[in-house]
Amino acid sequence: MPRQSGPQRSPIRADILGLPDQVFPPTPGEFAERLGDDLELRLLALNECPHPPSAQVIRAVAQAAKTANRYPDPQGRKLTRALAKRTGHPAEQIVLGNGSDELIFLLTLVTREEGAESIMPAPAFPGYRRAAVTLGAKPVTVPLRENGSTDVGGMLAAVTRRTRILFCAPVNNPIGGLMEDADFRRIIQETPPDILLVIDDAYHEYALHAGAKDVLSLLKARAGPWAVLRTLSKAYALAGLRIGYCLCGNNDLAQALLKVKTVFNVNSLAQAAGLACLEDNAYRDRILDSCARERQRLQNGVTEMGLASPRSIANFLTVRLPVPGQTVAAALARRGILVKAGTDSGFEDTIRISVGSEDDTTALLDNLPEILKDVAPPDAVD
Ligand SMILES: Cc1ncc(COP(=O)(O)O)c(C=O)c1O
Predict the structure, then answer these.
(1) pLDDT tens digits for range 133-149
(2) CATH number of 55-278
(3) Which of 63, 133, 304, 342 could share a disulfide with 347, CB 3.0–4.6 Å?
(4) 80 forms bridges with which residues in the sheet?
(5) Segments making up each domain of the chain, as ranges
(6) Which residues have C-beta atoms less than 6 Å from ligand 1?
(7) Across the chain, what does the average pLDDT equal?
(8) Is residue 276 a contact partner of residue 60, using CB atoms and an 8 Å limit?
């Protein structure tokens, strides 16, 4: 049949065209150019590890680069076997992703159907909402409780017959608090068995370091499908190589993810780095110790300034301010310190500060009072 002529129609889906344009913040290099060479940039906006990967990892990446002319193992079998050994979870139910962010997208993709709803806390890691919106599912957001914890009752009350997937994080972003045991057990047991329960365990290593239980053992109580997401971006200092993994509650889910992912989603340098980092627990533990120390210094420092900051066990801290977070984040950025301003409803007066090196903490604590003096009303800060 001949094609009908008429006004030209874009082959791109109308709902994707209708999304706001993607605007990424300047890269650290662009920031450095703007600020001049004498300001040291302090990257405290993305919850990265301030320390470089271990020497063992760097050697493994250099070695893997020699065979970068070859495609990587599509399933990353050596790494999934190492992760199986580490977690006690069957290797065939572990799927690697280009960061856990990709896995959030794939989990939404495999559960998405016409009219599907995705339940998530707000604020939360933006990837849950982004995946829902770009895949045409409806994001259903449930505000955190007043104390910053996940409102498990609210999330369960938001379930409808259209809900396909529910996201929650034992350590939520941007607060960094640990979910109460009773809340966690409730969400595992009461999320209906036809809904995929996704436990985003990005800060797993930090939670264990703070004395929390491994969530995997608790998931035995779940009757329905589940997935636990973890990442090598944080405690293993590999954010730039993009590698996360999904521990799937059954074979069907693992197979579904393998069917829809791009074949070579995790590159060979990332796979080599992943294997090497798992062999160096001492290095990871030094990263976790340093984070706990600097987090405490940060928390003490902002408390002394009279600012409220809920307890965090992660590699970031949310701080409430007497002025909009954007104002303070912009002023800090002019001094070379990048933090994230809160934008969600009820969080506009916050900034989230990633825990950095000792020097990063000192710089932040030195600069923040001066900035607050400039921008805050005189009686707002002690
Ligand atoms: C809660 C949470 N989930 C997932 C991610 C994504 O991590 P990645 O894609 O680097 O594995 C992050 C990153 O900050 C996060 O905070």
Answers:
(1) 999 999 999 999 999 99
(2) 3.40.640.10
(3) 342
(4) none
(5) 16-45+282-375, 55-278
(6) 47, 99-101, 125, 127, 169, 173, 200, 202, 231, 233, 239, 244
(7) 94
(8) yes
Q: Hey, what are 83's tokens? A: 């992760």
Distance of CA 128 from the midpoint of ligand 1 (Å): 10
pTM of the model: 0.95
Distance of CA 101 from the midpoint of ligand 1 (Å): 6
Q: For residue 32, what pLDDT is reported?
A: 77
| Nearest alpha carbon, ligand 1 atom 14 | 47
- By most ligand atoms within 8 Å of CB, the mutation choice from 106, 173, 291 for ligand 1 is 173
Domain 16-45+282-375, CATH: 3.90.1150.10
Atom of ligand 1 nearest to the CA of 101: 9
Q: Which bin fits 115, alpha (ψ -120 to 50), beta or left (φ > 0)?
A: left
Long-range Cβ contacts of 278-286 (<8 Å, 24+ apart): 278/79, 278/82, 278/83, 278/86, 278/236, 279/56, 280/54, 280/56, 280/57, 283/54, 283/56, 284/205, 284/235, 284/236, 285/209, 286/51
Average the pLDDT over 290-319 and give the result: 97
